[in-house]
Amino acid sequence: MPDATPSLELARAGHPSDLTLDARGLAYRALNEQLDAVVTAGATAVRLVNVHGQRYIGTNLQRRVRIDIEGVPGNDLGAFMDGPEIHVHGDAQDGCGNTMNSGLLAIHGSAGDIVGHSMRGGSVFVRDDVGYRVGIHMKAYEDVRPTVVIGGTAQHFLGEYMAGGVLLVLGRRLPTGATHPARYVGTGMHGGVIYLRGVPNQAFLGREVGLAPLTDADRALISDLVAQYNALFGLQVQADDPFTKLIPQSKRPYGQIYAY
Amino acid sequence: MAWAASENRYADDRVHDACGLFGFIDTSGRAHPGAIAVEALCSMRERGNGLGSGYAAYGIYPEHAERYCFHVMCKGRHARQELDEYLRRHFAVVHDEPIPTRETLGILDPPLLWRYFVVPLTAQMGGRSEADYVVHHVMRINTTLEGAFVVSSGKDMGIFKGVGHPDQIAEFYRIEEYEGYLWSAHNRFPTNTPGWWGGAHPFGLLDWSVVHNGEISSYGINRRYAEMHGYACTMRTDTEVFTYAVDLLMRRHELPAELAAAVFASPLWNELEQEPPKRRALLTALRQTYGSLLMNGPFTIIVARQGELMGLSDRIRLRPLVAATQGNVLYVSSELASIHLVASGLQHVWMPEGGEPVIGRLGQAPRIPARMLQEEPIHA
């Protein structure tokens, strides 16, 4: 963990905390090294422009820093991230928040497959739609609970093998009470919770999940996350529409297969 | 297959990841420089490991548009001489020349590369169609002439591929000197098979080109089925069989791309039961007839021929595929950033579902999935 002291000294010396890095033509390793250098030197806000597919942005930055990305960041954005706040002003690719520990990813657009893959903590907010297997293998430990909020709709296998945490899908362009297009939601799920505004695709629901009634605590959580979503993206999604809660039916759905 | 083995001098212990695919068709037929495909593919450098890359281009030989163009690889002078004699025995060679290349840092021991513009000898065709005659001889060459391979054999198109990173292969083959209305490109990360010149993508037969990311678990049964129909698998990789399956279904059996996609990535049985009766009957018939060409396992492919390009991923999309349109141009890629890099002001961007083909055809405006047109615009 880098020492925090230099940043204070730099701040006192009038070091510019808001700076811009041009990613054009940079390989991912060079870009991430530059980012690491300026954050270690004390920058508290960095703008990355002309990003074009560079991977692993924000990985291993254990600092409180805000990163704004213009362009399309590459796969595994914020992988293993521990603390930063990243805003993508457009679409993102696959693997956003892979095994993320803490911090915030806000995608002001759509994201690809496996958002929140194996995520352990922190929050991911996606304004629009996401691809396949979002929330795959998310996990939670005691009061550390990762959260993924999707403003639009998800493609299939949402919450696959999910072991913990919260997935909330708002389907904001679906009519109130509509059925979500995602098939096989919660396949292999054995922990955590999925909330959908509207209802899941019952003909193709994952075998390992069941519907559960919403409690007051669920409603409070949904209301809080929707408020955060609206604040991040300047939208007015209503939290008082009917929501569906999906939880696993067993903590060990494959116990009979793998256990001797 | 001593050649394939001897080319694998590169370490087999490299990290296995995933291949990178990129392709586009300008449905108005306007030609675009190869630099576009190169720039897009190079932005996905991490998807490959230097063990293979290649480009397919269409509309690049207008001066010989009516002749079959054979791009060939030969391991040495002897193999090339044998191949040369073979081709002249069975075809009228209108023109032949070395494929222009330049010395490129990191490109090791390239084979001899030649292109022939040929016309089948009618007297020898024996009732076969021209295309069947070409296929027959491509298979004969690839199975019987030691050290010689036909890389592509279509009209007004060609495949340029080898062992190297996308930028190296592009520099080596001088890709920037070609202009085509349709390009597909591949950055290879070989997983189960050796990296060697013939095993790089795209794979070609007639004017087909196929690039592939993934692995075909059903390879054995697919290969047997292709062999029953006269195709010989000689390239030591699963993608090759896809090329022959495409030729069988879409050329010989005249299935449109939409139905070929339903064969390769058939809906799961429980999904099939939910289809309306007529469509269910059609999909069931396809599954029953062509069950042996179901491509099981994770894959995304881009298939192209003159005038048509299709992107397709497996039925549960275990490999990525992104599509976008800008005017008359339809793009498909493994990664969205690569499309944004070469095209500004994209009109539609979408992630096709598993088994949902993305098809672009010459003379038809790119088609957008109906579900996207029903929705209000994202940025309203």
Across the major sheet of chain B, the strand order is: 8-3-10-1-16-15-17
Q: Estimate nothing, just give the exact number of structural domains of chain A.
A: 2
Structural class of chain B: alpha+beta
**Arithmetic mean of pLDDT of chain B:** 92
**Oligomer classification:** heterodimer
Query: What is the string of helix and strand elements of chain A?
Result: HEHEEEEEEEEEHEH
Largest interface: A-B, 31 and 25 residues
The CATH architecture of chain B would be 4-Layer Sandwich
Radius of gyration of chain B: 20 Å
Overview of the structural elements:
- The complex is a heterodimer of chains A (260) and B (380).
- By secondary structure, chain A is of the alpha/beta class.
- Chain A folds into 2 domains: 1-72; 75-258.
- Chain A is 17% helix and 25% strand.
- Chain A is built from 4 helices and 11 strands, in the order αβαβββββββββαβα.
- In chain A, β1 (18-22), α2 and β2 (45-52) form a beta-alpha-beta unit.
- The longest helix of chain A is centred in the C-terminal third of the chain and has 18 residues, at 216-233.
- Chain A is globular and about 50 Å long.
- The N and C termini of chain A lie far apart (42 Å).
- By secondary structure, chain B is α+β, with helices and mostly antiparallel strands.
- Chain B has a single domain (2-374), classed as Glutamine Phosphoribosylpyrophosphate, subunit 1, domain 1.
- In chain B, 30% of the residues lie in helices and 26% in strands.
- Chain B is built from 12 helices and 18 strands.
- In chain B, a hairpin with a 2-residue loop joins β11 and β12.
- Chain B is globular, with a radius of gyration of 20 Å.
- Mean pLDDT of chain B is 92; it is low at 10-16.
- Chain A binds chain B through residues 27-28, 51-53, 55, 71-75, 91, 93-94, 109-110, 112-113, 128-129, 131-132, 152, 155-157, 173, 181, 183, 203-204, and chain B through 43-46, 270-271, 274, 316-317, 320, 322, 335-338, 340-341, 349, 351, 353-354, 371, 375-376, 378.
